Amino acid sequence: MGQLPVIAVVGPTAAGKSDLAVELAIRLRGEAVNADSMQLYRGMDIGTAKLTIPERKGVTHHLFDVWDVGQTASVAEYQRLARPLIDGLLARGVTPVIVGGSGLYVRAILDDLEFPGTDSVIRARLEAELAEKGVAPLYARLQAEDPVAAAAILPSNGRRVVRALEVIELSGRPFSATMPSYESVYRSVQIGLNIPRPVLDERIELRVHRMWAAGFVEETRKLHEAGMGPTASRALGYAQVIKYLDGEWTEEQAVEETVRATRRFARRQESWFRRDPRVVWLPYDAPDLPAQAIKVVSCAS
Questions:
Q1: Beta pairing, strands 188-194 & 95-99
Q2: 77, 87, 91: which is closest to 110 by C-alpha?
């Protein structure tokens, strides 16, 4: 048989990835590995739709609740945690089932990615420039210095633009030279959940209202008072609730903006995963979806 495959269940938020991953892990005697960047944070449960213990159905889930909310997320740190974990599961004959919508985190496990170092002085200078002048002049500079990277980064994504310019200045190489290539370090199968946009939009709205009913505002209040770092406080939903808690928005505005922002995010997720030619897409409502997914895994083995 050779090496066990590493399975990744990917796609937009609210498509049903977590439930499918649990069923696959049960049927393949595997264990789930979280690749949702916000589910790594302790206490960020309701707003990230983190599976509860009963919903995990006895399947071991790794890389939940490993970071304090004051910590800045780092995909390089995630890779350092995840790679030995995957290697350990494979060594024990356990099928790793990666699940999550953070595309770069999935790629950090599966693919040959190297993450350049950081320089706090360069970063601080670029972030100050971003705060003072906005993202447009920084993005124009990136277009001039590394058009390939600029084409792959949203012009509005100030954090990513700053990071790209930091790497260029620090390394003297194009940021695009460090961007992901589709070269896996494991024998892997990626299964994407294909869901029509109107259905997804409806599910997102329903999920947001359920989050509110489950105590999302109170969860955010406690985390906000405890001191959320820059990554956690900007997380989808949490950022909107914080504006409500700080009196900038009404609660109704916070709900509406969370729905709107989540729908935009889901479209970006889908675009990211659609670019990867290795993803095999299955209908989200396929009869016996886990069996179909296992068939995909078997064909790839």
A1: unpaired
A2: 87
**DSSP label of 65:** S
pLDDT confidence bin for 177, thresholds 50/70/90 = confident
Q: Which amino acid is at 49?
A: A
Q: What is the pLDDT of residues 86-113, one digit of tens each?
A: 999 999 999 999 999 999 999 999 998 8
pTM score, whole prediction: 0.84
With tokens 């109170």, the residue in question is 218
**C-alpha distance from residue 56 to each of 5, 36, 124, 246, 263 (Å):** 22, 16, 41, 35, 26
| Per-residue pLDDT at 1 exceeds 50 | no
Q: With residue 201 as reference, give the H or E element that holds it.
A: helix 197-213
Write the single-letter amino acid at 190.
Q
* Separation CA 111–CA 105 (nearest Å): 10
Amino acid at position 204, single letter: I
Which amino acid belongs to residue 282? L
Helices 238-245, 216-226: inter-axial angle, 10-degree rounding: 80
Conformation bin of residue 220: beta by default, left when phi > 0, alpha when psi is -120 to 50: alpha
pLDDT digits (tens, 9 = 90+) for 184-210: 999 999 999 999 999 999 999 999 999
User: Quick one: which of 71, 159, 172, 185 has its CA closest to 116?
Assistant: 172
| Closest by CA position to 230, among listed 221, 222, 238 | 238
